[in-house]
Amino acid sequence: ISEGLIVQGFLETINEDPINGQTITITATYDDDYVDEFTATTEEDGTYQTTVPAHKTGTVTIIATFDETETYAASEDTTTTTITENEPKETIITPAVDNTAVDEIEIDAQIDYIDNNEQLPLPTGEVTITITFADETTTTIPATITNGEIQTTTIPTEGKTGTATINITYPGTEEYKPTETITTINILTKTTLSITADETTI
């Protein structure tokens, strides 16, 4: 739920002269009949502003009331708005893994989130890295996230060869959506090369 509703308006005479230093009562009534009440004071230009905490999702009716004084008559205005649940932000994992490996697989990755069409590093969190080898055995380890960088992880191949699938999974939070990425690499068969030379004469 959003942190609060910014409520603002102005108080002026019928001749459009701003009225300064007056108290405005703000009453917020939710569709379950829950009521919050706040006050705000007008500035020199007649404007006022306050933040009404969001009680729940749904429709809220907000009434601004100015009570009669010795100089000014009372006035009132009403508006209606809707409080909605915050949508978690999209996340993206960008792996940096070589296409081939021999003795070990080194995994680097970046994880970002999207906010107002801008890609930003995810501050903190944890991912799970799962490698499935050609023989269908798996290795699963956690890795921490620091300012968008996923902790460098090195996994020994233990003599395995063939394709290996690397799955990096972020579980998500209330603020960030879950995401995953899958990368396939090839684990090469180790080779041994020897060389000899016969003695000869010229």
How does this structure look, described?
- The protein is an all-beta fold and 202 residues long.
- It has no helices and 15 strands.
- It has strands at 4-10, 23-30, 35-41, 47-53, 58-66, 75-83, 91-96, 100-101, 104-115, 118-121, 124-133, 138-146, 149-156, 162-170, 179-187.
- Strands 7, 8, 9, 10, 11, 12, 13, 14 and 15 form a 9-stranded mixed β-sheet that branches. Strands 3-2-5-6 form a 4-stranded antiparallel β-sheet, with no helix packed on it.
- A hairpin with a 2-residue loop joins β9 and β10 (118-121).
- It is rod-shaped and about 125 Å long.
- The mean pLDDT is 92.
Helix content: under 10%
Instruction: Please give the radius of gyration in angstroms.
Output: 32 Å
The overall pLDDT, averaged over residues, is: 92
Please outline the major beta sheet.
9 strands, mixed
DSSP strand tally: 15
Number of helices: 0
Structural class: mainly beta
Q: What spatial form do the alpha-carbon principal axes imply?
A: rod-shaped
Give the CA-CA distance, first to last residue.
90 Å
Per DSSP, what share of the residues sits in E-state strands of 2 or more residues? Answer: over 45%
Low-confidence stretches: none
Sequence of secondary-structure elements: EEEEEEEEEEEEEEE
